[in-house]
Amino acid sequence: MTATNQPLLGTATAVDGSPVGAADGLLVPPGHGRVVETPAQRVTFKVTGSHSRFTSTFEVEVPPGFDVGAHVHSRSEELFYVLEGELDVLAFEPLVRTPDNWQKWESRSGNRVVRATPGTVIVVPPGCPHAFANPTGTAAKMFFQTSPPPDHERYFEELLEILGSGGPPDLEAIEDLRKRYDIEQLTPLKHR
Fold first, then answer.
1. In which order are the strands placed within the sheet that holds 140-147?
2. Which of 82, 119, 173, 182 is the most exposed place for a label (fewest CB within 10 A)?
3. Helix axes of 151-163 and 171-180: crossing angle, nearest 10 degrees
4. Is the bond preceding residue 7 a cis peptide, omega within 30 degrees?
5. How far apart are CA 132 and CA 88, in angstroms?
6. pTM
7. Does residue 101 have a pLDDT over 70?
8. Beta bridge partners of 133
9. For the residues 56-61, what does the mean pLDDT come to?
10. 191 and 169 in contact (C-beta within 8 Å)?
11. Distance (Å, rounded) from C-alpha 9 to C-alpha 173?
């Protein structure tokens, strides 16, 4: 795992260079944010629990062949916005939660997995099964927001550490990790 600490700009400055008051917002320029990376995924932390009481925000690069696996959170709400590339996405309760291939799931109302392209927004309320996978030959990038913070920040750090250890993923370690962070895994995480 690689972790880079690029500065997040959280203290604004006046024209003369002096710091502005404590109620300042956060400005994260392009290319900035703390990066955690493995061959399985690259996540840039843009807004963390130290900056917001309500949400954590990430930029996530999803390599070809990565499948997060269908899962559900009892407390977290998530928003995904596809920036580049294409992802297969799911955000509904299926008729049957089969444990193998979420890409074949269908909802009671006929919803099926969608190929999300740039500009697609996916909102996932607590209790809603969801998943994303990159079935293409090129990387995809998405904006990802979750509430409340900081659970996903810690989860990403620990997951990427497990995935960065080389070889096939340690499924038992991932299962234990997900239980600690309100993630009920319904189908397996996969990556090349």
1. 2-5, 34-37, 42-47, 56-62, 140-147, 77-84, 121-124
2. 119
3. 170
4. no
5. 5
6. 0.80
7. yes
8. 67, 88
9. 94
10. yes
11. 34
